[in-house]
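Hey all, sorry for the wall of text incoming. These are the two entities for the joint prediction.
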Amino acid sequence: MSMFRAKKFDLGCYTNIQIIRDHSKRKAFEAAEPERQALRYIIRNTTLPARTRAIAQLQLTQMHCYTRPTQIRNRCILGGKGRGILSDFKMSRFNFRLQALAGNLPGVKKASW
Amino acid sequence: MSIPRARLLDLMRARCELFATTFNPEGLRTGNKILRQRLKGPALASYYPRKRVTFGQFQKAFAPLELEVEDEKEQDRLEHIAALKARGKGAPKKRKEQQKNKKK
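and here's what came out:
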């Protein structure tokens, strides 16, 4: 959804449309997080009237899907791949291997015993 | 030797006051655990590295010192376009305003 996209390109890593999309989802979630948490609190609070809680449930489900944390997926910052990501390094497994063998990742070395 | 419930509740209330916890003897679900959660938006939004300095800014920073920095990528691109145009394979020119009005 282009309305969530940054007006000025602001990424410094490898970019493709999937990465731009994921990045805008992250920013949309960050902006909407307090509202989401407030609604979640109202829903979970059993001391509030049932009507208020039902309205809060509706509002939460009607928020844009880009503001949902489950839409966010870690992607490789070197190749944009969405699967096989080592989240500690933000890289796909193959890019991680290449970088580690090239000695670009401090403290990482090939196991041998 | 059973202790009355009221006395136990008093003890609980005193304990809650001491340790600054909420007094909720019925165990009602008040949703406070949502309020206790930390916001994870900033951590998630900073996943991808942001663009810091562009080549243009870099060139501008060195301009007052009268140092010229060549943007090799940009030069390659312009050369490529020039070569295409020389062969007559370049991008077509933008159509003018008049033609636009005619089509409408």
